[in-house]
Amino acid sequence: MTALSIFFALLFYAATAIFVVGLVRKIMQYSRTPAPLKIPTTPAPVTQTGVVLRMAREVVLFASLFKASKWTWLFGWMFHIALLLAFFRHLRYVISPDSMFYVFWPLINNNLVQAFGQYGAYAMLIGLLGLFGRRIFVDRVRYISAPSDYLMLILILAIAGTGTLMSFVAHTDIVQLKAFMLGLIYLDWQPLPTDGLLITHLALVALLMIIFPISKLLHAPGVFFSPTRNQVDNPREKRHISAWGKAIDDAEANA
Amino acid sequence: MADFEVPELKEIPVVPPIKEGAMAHSQPYIAKEQFQEPLGFPGELVENWEEKVYDKMDDLRQRYRSFQVYLDSCVKCGACTDKCHYYLGTSDPKNMPVARQDLLRKVYRGKFTFAGKFWTKLGMPWMVGAQEMDKGVLDEWYSYFHQCSQCRRCSVYCPYGIDTAEISMAAREIMDSVGVGMKYTNEIIGKVYKIGNNLGLPQPALVDTLEGLEEEVEEDTGVAVKFPLDVKGADILLVTPSADFFAEPHVDGLIGYAKVFHEAGASWTMSSHASEAGNFGMFIGSYENMRKVARRIRTAAIDLGVKRIVFGECGHAWRVAYSFLNTLAGPWDFLDPNYPVPQHICEYTHDLIQQDKLTFDKSANDWRVMTYHDSCNVARASRMGEKPGGQFTIPREVIKACCNNFHDMPAETIGEATFCCGGGGGILTDDLIELRVKGAMPRAEALKSVVEEQGVTHMAAICAICKSQFTKVLPYYGFTMDQIVSVHQLVSDAIVLTKKD
Q1: Is the CB of B102 less than 8 angstroms away from the CB of A145?
Q2: What is the pLDDT at residue A101?
Q3: What is the ipTM metric for this complex?
Q4: Which residues in B lie closer than 8 A to residue A243 (C-beta atoms)?
């Protein structure tokens, strides 16, 4: 075991812990915070099923963004879909056919999934470059961008770039990589291949996991808690009252 | 005519390049102590106000999920940047919804997020767009959070549904809590508490006005249409914006409601206690004040023993009525369960039309070619009827039932995409006239296009603020003030009255 392997093993445990704990804390904070008033952006669904469909259109198709700006939608949607495809492709590094997640194996061991995951890399790069270009060339978007907004794109571009290089140009030792990842899961540490691209790729991924719960990447859980999107339009039919709103009513009634 | 440049109306609307600081000078009058105190706010900027701002922000993020989620979630994608009528009309980048939110978000970041605190400690808060609260920030808040009409157009286009109205309401509440209130809104809320309505019309003046209207209508039509006030035991309580009692074209709408009630043979009344549908408590983001204003309606309904509540034409009032009244002043279990509480006057009239209970002489409106302005709060924050989108179809069906000539403005300027009149959200005050004129530019462009292409002569609206705003600002763009009409003014002009006892 090299020092590098040990460092990366510890880094991944830490990054995973920060990612999971940070995200769970945020989600709990969002779900505990009351929404005292009905504020769905109307026209809004009048049933809970309708709300689920509205949310699905937002999360899967980015429906509102499509209405807003076709270019931003195109680049943004391309990037996110490619991210999903890359996620599926990467499952093969952490799941083996004899693990507890074996049910996913047919999905992983599927040429179509692997091919989409591999060539999706180009879609991801194009999407990210498009978003980066908008940030630089559209005066309005440039005005609202902080350094962190550019750095976030650069970080993800670097992750996608190193990944693409390993996939198409300079292959890494994926058998050893898989041994390393499985070793992390089963607490049986194995050495990490010493490959510059891989090390950069993994370090940046760990960084992304660490900043996820403390950055604008919180839009991922946030959208599900957005009252303008997740509320049923039925205020006349059903009285909506928060705990603190009710406390005001009760205090007045008892005064 | 104006000491500022009135924007030119373009054939094809364009998104202007940013012009930094273009509207930095715009500030409404600050409320003096006498207008702050009745609302429970300090009369002037309090000591340690920076700390108190942080405390209030902390309080709000624990009480409002919208505030917390929206401050965290924005990715600065720019989808909203060309959607605000104030940005389109002024080119000031701080009138882009995301930039407006950022005025508050940067303070939130610096104080309540790890990233913000981290970079502030390193002396580089700008890294993540964080900033500490100071007088300059407060002044910017006061200026730009009073350049938002809370119309929610941005919330339609945001991929996370971030609603700038929620942020501007919160900012105004924070400012009020440290003694920096806006004169126009806060003085008006005080009038509602003291006298019962925004315009400060006391009960005797109301009686006078309504008697005058009865005489006028009888003279015009030969039919004794009643305008009842404070009638105990009436079936329907009509709550309408106080502008309906005398402003033009509002009052023609009120005459229309009265004629509809007359033809329906309805037993109805208005209330001097709840002689105002508007609720400016919403504009300043104060749940407590909004609740107090709303509960006057509950008191009136109980005192008069009515069975139903109907609201007159008013946009933000309908948002508070439709979306919040049950929360703030419900439950309404003592009213007739066969009707929604409350109902909109357009729903009421529409129902009668569906049942064939009203007769119209549509030719009475033939000299007009109509279009219809969807008021922002009705369009994006409420509903009419059973189905989503009823807020768009029902008023149009009412108009078409009494007018032969109707054309909609371009699709991207109506319905859920409607442009605010430029005077909503508590900024309908003369000290903000430049903002109001410039904010009306997108609507004026859309109107101009149907005037030129379809020969439209009049635009109908169902909001007291829209009507007041348009009569004041459309003349800057070459229209005349009488081109704005009430929907129930059209009803009034076409309805065939029958004598009833």
Answers
A1: no
A2: 76
A3: 0.95
A4: none
